[in-house]
Structure formats: C-alpha cells, structure tokens
Specification:
heterodimer; A: 491 residues; alpha+beta; Arc Repressor Mutant, subunit A; nine-stranded mixed β-sheet; three-stranded antiparallel β-sheet; 16 strands; elongated; B: alpha/beta; eight-stranded mixed β-sheet; three-stranded mixed β-sheet; globular
Chain lengths: 491, 485
C-alpha cells in the first residue's frame, strides 16, 4: 500500500514514464434509521432471530400491497437537505425486476428515473483545505433478505428480516481522486447522517455499504476512462484496498496496450483483489417500470419546509460557529465537529468552562484516555460535567495544570468529582500571597549564598528558588504568584 | 312462499330481517343447489360445512342491522380468504391457504355475509372464457358447452344458476362485465380506487378492481355499498365519500345526457347487438334522457394498449410465484433450475404467454416503443373520456361484440379471444366505473348486455340509469336447469 498517501497530495499511479489519475465515484447504501420498514409495519431491529421481523408484505404473499412509511420519506428529505440537495416534489417508485431467493417479490421497489433527492454537494475537510464533492442523487429503495449458504450443506437458507428495510442510495459524482478523499467522503456522509439521525452509520452491522466505481486516465486527460463497479464493499479500509487494487489492475492493462471492459466486480477481502462478477453484456435487464401499487410521491412545499425548520445544526455550520465564536482553529473545529457525540460533549463542557482549555483537554487528555481504553465518547469514564469542573478549578487557579493531570487520572476511575478529589487529597493550590511569602522568606534565608550569586548576575538561579518553593509547598504553590513574589524579593 | 333460491338478494335480506326465513335455511338452500350443480364446475373450493356452522351461529345470535344478515355468498377465487384455500385458478397456488382476509371479503363478513365457497376463474384472471383455469372449464347455465365468460366465469355461472344469491368478481379488462353479459346477469366494475385491492391476487395492479355480480341492479347497489371502502392498506384506494347506493337508487333519468360513441360500432358486430343498443337508446329517450353522439377517437388503440400494460404489470406481479416461499415447487438441480421447473409446470399457457409479452415490452430497447408508448396512449384514452364527459353524464355501449361462444371455439386463437374485451377494456384503462346489464337475446337465445359507463366515482348515476333500463326492458333469463338430472 505504498501508494497510500498520508497527506492530501495527489494520488497518482506511476508506470514507466506515465502517471495515471484515479477517478472514483461512490454509491453509498445507507440504512434509514426507522422503527419500521419502507413499505410495511415490521420492525427493523438488527440482530433478531431469523425471520422474526417479517410481515406478509415483506414475504410477498399474494395480494399484499406496499404502503409508504412516511417517516422514511422524511428521513430521506432530511438527508437530502443535509447534502445541500434539491428535494424533488414529485418522485416515483419503480420496480427493479430480478429473480433471487432472498428477493420475495421478484422485484425490488426502488426509484429509477425520478428520485426523491436530486443534485447536492458534500464538503470535505482535507489537510490542505476544503473540497466539494458533487452528489448526483439520493433515492429510496428496499433492502433484500439474506441468503445463508454455510449453515446447511445441501440447502440455502433465507432470512427475510432485512427484506423491505429502507435504504438510501446516495450516488456521488465521479469527483473523488484519492483514497484519502474516499475516507474523508464516507466519514463526512456518516457524520451528516448521524447529526440528522437518519442513519446510524454502523458499518459493522451493514448500515453503511458502498458500490465503488473506479476508472483511471492519464494525468491531464479530460476524458474519463472506462469504469468498473466494485459491488457491496462494507468498510472504508476495504474500499481503499479495493480501489487501490482495481486502479493498479486497470493501469497494468492499459500499459500493456489493452483496454478496460466495463463490468461489475467483487472485492475478495481475503485475497485483497477484485474479480469479475459479470460483464456489461451479461448485465441484468431489470425491466424497471413505475410500481403500479404506489402512486407517484408528491410532496408539498409546506411538508418540506417543516422538515427544513427542524434540521439541527450540521457539522459545516457548527465548525463555522466554533471558529467564529470560540476562536478555534479550523483544525481544532474539525476534530470537535466531525462526530456528533464529540461535538455534544464539547459543547456541554465549554458551556460551563473556558473554551480554549476545554478544547485542549478534550482533544488531548480525554481523547488519549478514550483511545487507550478503546471507548466511544458516549462511554467516556469522565462526564462532561466533571471535566468542566476540572477546567474551572484550573482557570480559577485552585489547582495547577500539573496537579490537574493527576486529578484527571483519579477522575477516570468512576467519574469522580474533581472538587472532592482536591479537597480529600488536599491538592488545592497555594494562592495566598502571605502564606507564599512566608515560604519564600524561609527559602531565601536558608540559601544566602545562592541569593548573593543571583544578585551578582547568575539569572539562571531563579529557577532554583522556584523549585525550592514548589518542593516546600508540596507542589501546590501557585507558580505565577511564586514568580511574582520571588522577583520582588530578590531584585 | 317461493323457492328460496329464486329470491333476489334484497328479498332474502328482508325476509331474514323479518325472521320469515333463517340464515340456516337460506344457506342450506344454496348449498343444496350447489351440490346438485357440480356439472357446472363453478366452484374450486367448497366451504359448505363451515358456512352452515356460521349460519347456525348467526341464527343463534342474529344481528339484523347488518347489510347481509346471515346471507351465504360464494366469491371468485382471486380473493384471499382466511383459512380457506385460495388458488387464483392456478396450479401454482393449488394448495395455498391464506392466513389473512382480503379487505373486500372482510367487508362482506363484517356485514354478516357467509362465504360458502370459492368460485372458478381463469388462471390469475387471465382469460375471457374461464378456459385457462387449472381447475377446468365452467359451464354456462344458459346452454351446455357454452362458456360463461371470463375471467369471473365461475362467478357468473354460479350466479346465473342460482348457486349463490350474489357474488363478487374482479375486472381488469372486462372480467366482471363480459361474463355478466354472457350469462344474463348484472356486473359492475367500480371506479379504480373504490374497492380495496388488499388481499386480491394481483393480475395488473393499475387496472384490477373488484366489483359486484348480481341478478339485478338493486342487488348490485346493495353489494357495492358493502364492498366499497377506503383502505389504508392499499395505496391506490381513494378516500372519497361513498354513496348510499341502495337507498339512493332511483330510476328517474329525466334530463340525463347519455353519450353514444360512434367508435363502438365495430365491423362485423352482429345485427342483434346493434338493435339492442338502439333499444337501449330508445328507453333512455322515452324516459326523458337525451342521446348525444360522442367521439372517443382513440378507442381503436385501447385493446393493443391494454395488451401491453396488463401483461407488463402481470409479468412483474407473478414473479413472486417462484417456489421459494409458498405454493407449488418443483425439484431442481439448483436455484435457477428450480425456478424454471416450478414456473413451467405451475403456470398454464395463457399465463406464460402474458408473462412473456410483459417481459418483452419492459425489456431495455423495447420499453420506449411499447410500455412507454402504451402509457401515453392510455392517457389519450382517458382524455377522450374526460372530453366526452364535458358533454354527457354517462355513456351507453354494448357490453361485448358477441354473445357467449362454445367451449373450445376460441382457445386456439388468442387474438379473437382478446377481441371479446374490446368494449370493456377502455374503461379499465381510464379507471372509470361501468355496469353491464342484461338487455336481450341473440338468435340462439343467448343473453346480450348493455354497458353504462360513468364518470369517476359516479357509480350512483350509472346504477340509476341501469335501473331505469332494467325496469323498461323486461329481460328474462331462459335457464332450464339442463345440468340437473
């Protein structure tokens, strides 16, 4: 994976004297966060016993009819708004016809020519700036069931729990150019949907999968190369591996004077290679046509506006606000907004304490702690309330930054209140000038030689006096005050 | 007291309400006659014992506020009925027993109706003679070896033979009106969206509509009142205010403007049908209605349009019968082999023909030329009616271009079979309501029907016009019970 660049530099594949640019487009399948399925009232709970979340509609019994779940429509519109996209007032559900054992109707209800959401954009935050990625469309469709081939040696088993679950297919324009951009794009999509509560973005549970379109072209060329589609890749890492393999495969073919066949390929995660699944000639003829069981979906302005009114602040706006209001750097803001739970935590902490300190403590100590314990921020052992208390103790001068780190460690064991720790352990900072003066006077009188040397010009000895005072106070003396008083006494 | 089976539906209801007869007596009478009439092959599944039990239960605890208090009814086997086998006339559903009830049959049950059996029909309602049923031909009680029409052929046969006091069918291109016309009975296809399609085995979703089949117009109004309802389980169900069709039934058609489309005068139409049509016009004029010639210029394209749209939808609707989840399954080497064998053995020829047509017209490269164009023509056909209804209140046409034909006469000529629907198909394409009423006989004594077509959701109006024609035309079915020894 030597071609994986860590920075946002060009991702180019070099062969001989030629440089190839990689053009990537993604079709992301995001499971709509909803209690019930797109066209039936069955629940959508993940991990249930096989075939327990299935209605007569999902199993396509004779005479059963789909009825649109309004909530899923709202979720798609919300997502469309989050992608800065056009919401189409009229959209149509079509039937995509093909036979498979886990497709009970013999067709998937999807949207073909008239999707619910049209063109939009997603802004990527890359190390050297922003990049806008075009969104072609977002449409709603049903998920299929699951065929299980490895339980019974003689039969394929079918689990229809997923059958009919609502998916949003989000199709990007071929605007992505590197593996880092793919990573950033998926994370941004996920972040937006999690802010909106329209998809939980859980890739392990298959809530977010993607078909990846890859083509290559000589650097500088304006024409797109022939693309291959890699089906159903379910993690960012696998997407990157698949793209890298596929792009190199294509370059090798071109370099050997061959040409790329437009085809659908599968990524084998064990062998780290893509394999042909079917060629363009073998492509399914899905015989799309408007589903006569469903009327065209017509949305009125009010319906859309009501949803718009209730859109929460999204990562891009939040980032802007953090930069303007809290004077955070774009880098800091990015880190804090990219995950909705982190941003919530940050806002809770900073609401009651110093913003700069909150930023540093969350991105520094807290992230390190979470990383070490492999925890999500929602599972943080230190609550936002107690972290803001700790920050306030620092800000007020009750404790020093150094002591704070000790307290932070103690807090992580059962979310202890930092104020109580300070009290119990007597860690309060010495900030009474009279008390400090007493200590300082004692140190000065005990070290007459060093006082003389200092006065004769050995400035470096100032540090010695500070150290002695701190030691004598058990580390609790307010360092700023110590400095001030010492300077007065010695000069 | 006259024979129970000779009573009209509304008379039965009255007599039960007046406690002159019991539900059990009525149910027994129709079951007895059904049992004597096996030769007609009207039934696919009998539910006699269960029905008698239900009748007994009704008599023990009667509710006379119901619209069909303890009235036995047999229904077309396209309606899913809970715990009663539902086959759609196909081998592929030969042993399918639904765990659910269609909305239309539920409405019947809710009004006190009792299901005595499931009636034969063309396989998946694809046919005009009931000859495509896996469960065999149905005899028309009018004459031996005459088809009862289709696809609701079991329904029309059972109704005309008085095996059931009324019934329901489904009409995708004429499947209620044509068999009604062939058997001298009344059949109404409501406006698309009037009766829920929930639980009806789908043929062509944008055209399918359930409707009543009865002995007379008054019964038809009663049945429509029972079965029509808004249903949120069917997205194409329309939430309009349903009429009190029976209460508001009125033969006064004074001032009604009735359109006569010149395009319905087709070549080779028997003289009797033209005369029948004229007779209908005269009755309307005699009763104060006005006859106005109208233009439905795209009528000629209706049949080809229908035979693209309906098979296209059917090819997709029937994809679910794949042997995986329920119904007939044939053994195969692998999944594809199992599909192929299951569907080859499970479907009959006409169904396969339509699946192939439908698959073809939806295929990439052909979609625009066939399916898309057909949808455009469909819109033009609807526009024709919209234009006409600016001038008229309803339209009068013959129901069919001929009377019932012999069993086997057209089975080898699908196109001639399809031509049977020439007067009924445009109405389905436009989503309008239409009623067929018996109006006369041809030279062989076979019944002929007239069709009254209405504006969308204007069922009351066509019922009233039909009622007026019925009162004046004095039609009498000549049925001599030839099938009973």
């Amino acid at each position: 994976m030597d071609k994986l660049s860590k920075e946002n530099k060009e991702y180019l594949i070099k062969r001989n004297t030629n440089e190839y640019e990689v053009v990537i487009g993604l079709e992301v399948h995001a499971q709509v966060l909803s209690e019930s399925k797109l066209f039936s009232t069955s629940p959508t709970k993940f991990g249930s016993e096989p075939n327990t979340q299935v209605s007569l509609v999902d199993a396509a019994f004779p005479g059963m009819l789909p009825v649109i779940n309004e909530f899923c429509i709202k979720q798609a519109i919300k997502t469309g708004i989050g992608l800065n996209a056009k919401i189409n007032k009229k959209s149509i559900f079509d039937r995509k016809n093909y036979f498979y054992a886990d497709l009970p109707q013999g067709y998937q209800i999807s949207q073909y020519k008239n999707p619910i959401v049209g063109e939009g954009t997603v802004t990527l935050d890359l190390p050297n700036g922003e990049k806008k990625i075009g969104i072609e469309r977002l449409h709603l469709e049903q998920d299929a069931g699951k065929s299980i081939h490895d339980i019974d040696p003689n039969n394929t088993l079918v689990d229809l729990n997923r059958s009919g679950v609502a998916l949003m297919e989000i199709v990007s324009k071929p605007d992505l150019r590197s593996l880092d951009e793919v990573n950033s794009y998926i994370k941004k999509l996920r972040s937006i949907m999690r802010y909106l509560g329209t998809c939980d973005g859980n890739m392990q549970e298959g809530s977010l999968r993607a078909d990846v379109n890859v083509s290559v072209r000589k650097k500088g060329s304006k024409e797109f190369g022939t693309r291959c589609e890699i089906k159903n890749v379910n993690s960012i890492k696998f997407m990157q591996m698949a793209i890298d393999y596929e792009a190199n495969r294509q370059v090798d073919i071109i370099e050997e004077g061959g040409s790329i066949d437009q085809e659908t390929r599968l990524f084998d995660t064990k062998k780290n290679e893509t394999r042909s699944m079917r060629s363009k000639e073998d492509a399914h003829d899905y015989r799309y046509f408007p589903d006569p069981d469903l009327l065209p979906l017509e949305l009125d302005e009010n319906f859309i506006n009501n949803i718009k009114k209730n859109i929460p602040e999204l990562p891009d706006e939040k980032k802007k606000r953090f930069i303007e209001k809290f004077k955070l750097s774009p880098y800091e803001a990015n880190i804090l907004v990219s995950d909705i739970d982190t941003s919530k935590y940050f806002e809770e902490v900073s609401k009651n304490s110093d913003v700069k300190l909150a930023t540093n403590w969350i991105t520094g100590e807290l992230f390190a702690l979470l990383n070490e314990k492999n925890l999500e921020i929602t599972e943080s052992p230190i609550s936002s309330k107690n972290l803001s208390k700790l920050i306030n103790l620092i800000k007020k001068g009750t404790i020093s930054g150094k002591i704070a780190k000790t307290i932070f460690e103690l807090m992580s064991d059962g979310d202890k209140d930092p104020e109580k720790i300070v009290e119990e352990k007597g860690l309060k900072q010495q900030s009474d000038p009279k008390e400090l003066e007493k200590i300082i006077n004692k140190i000065i009188s005990e070290n007459p030689k060093n006082v003389e040397l200092y006065k004769s010009g050995k400035d470096k000895l100032f540090g010695f006096f500070v150290g002695q005072v701190m030691k004598s106070s058990g580390g609790k003396a307010n360092p700023q005050l110590v400095n001030e008083i010492l300077k007065k006494k010695l000069n | 007291m006259s024979n129970i089976i000779d009573l009209k539906l509304f008379e039965l209801v009255e007599k039960i309400k007046k406690k002159e007869i019991s539900s059990t007596e009525v149910t027994k009478a129709f079951i007895d006659r059904s049992q004597k009439s096996k030769k007609l092959n009207s039934y696919i599944t009998e539910n006699f014992e269960n029905a008698l039990q239900k009748a007994k239960q009704f008599d023990e605890k009667p509710d006379f506020n119901k619209k069909l208090p303890g009235v036995p009814l047999a229904v077309k086997d396209l309606f899913c009925t809970k715990n009663i086998r539902t086959t759609a006339g196909s081998k592929i559903l030969e042993n399918f027993i639904p765990t659910y009830e269609s909305t239309v049959t539920q409405n019947i049950l809710n009004e006190g109706g009792i299901i005595i059996g499931k009636l034969n029909c063309d396989e998946f309602a694809m046919g005009s003679s009931n000859e495509t049923s896996f469960f065999g031909n149905v005899q028309n009680p009018i004459s031996e070896n005459l088809v009862p029409g289709g696809s609701s052929g079991g329904s029309s046969s059972a109704l005309a033979a008085k095996l059931t006091p009324a019934t329901i069918g489904t009409d995708t291109g004429g499947s209620i009106r044509q068999p009604a016309s062939f058997t001298g009975t009344v059949g109404l296809k409501p406006t698309y969206g009037s009766c829920s399609r929930y639980g009806i085995v789908a043929f062509a979703s944008s055209l399918d509509q359930a409707g009543p089949m009865t002995q007379n117009v008054k019964d038809c109004a009663l049945m429509l009142e029972v079965i029509s309802s808004y249903d949120n389980k069917d997205s194409t169900s329309v939430d309009f205010k349903r009429g009190q069709y029976l209460k508001d039934l009125n033969e006064n058609i004074k001032g009604k403007k009735i359109g006569i489309p010149k395009q319905y005068r087709v070549d080779g139409m028997p003289k009797e049908i033209d005369e029948l049509w004229k007779k209908g016009m005269k009755i309307i004029e005699d009763n104060g209605g006005e006859i106005i010639e109208i233009n439905l210029p795209n009528t000629n394209y209706a049949l080809p349009t229908y035979y693209i749209v309906a098979p296209a939808e059917a090819s997709s609707n029937l994809a679910r019968y794949d042997g995986v989840k329920y119904g007939f399954r044939s053994k195969g080497e692998n999944l594809i082999d199992m599909y192929e064998k299951t569907r080859s053995e499970g479907f009959g020829d006409e169904v396969k023909r339509r699946i192939m047509i439908g698959t073809y017209v939806l295929s990439s490269g052909y979609y625009d030329a066939y399916y898309l164009k057909a949808q455009k023509v469909r819109r033009l056909i609807k526009n024709d009616f919209d234009q006409a209804y600016k001038k008229v209140d309803a339209i009068l046409t013959p129901s069919t271009p001929s009377s019932a034909f012999k069993i086997g006469e057209k089975t080898n000529d699908p196109v001639s079979m399809y031509l049977n629907d020439i007067f009924t198909v445009p109405i389905n394409l436009a989503g309008l309501p239409a009623i067929s009423i018996p109006a006369g006989h041809d030279k062989s004594g076979y019944p002929l029907g007239l069709q009254v077509i209405g504006k969308a959701f204007d069922e009351q109006n066509i019922l009233n016009i039909a009622y007026s024609i019925e009162k004046n035309i004095n039609f009498k079915n000549n049925i001599n019970d030839w099938w009973i020894n």
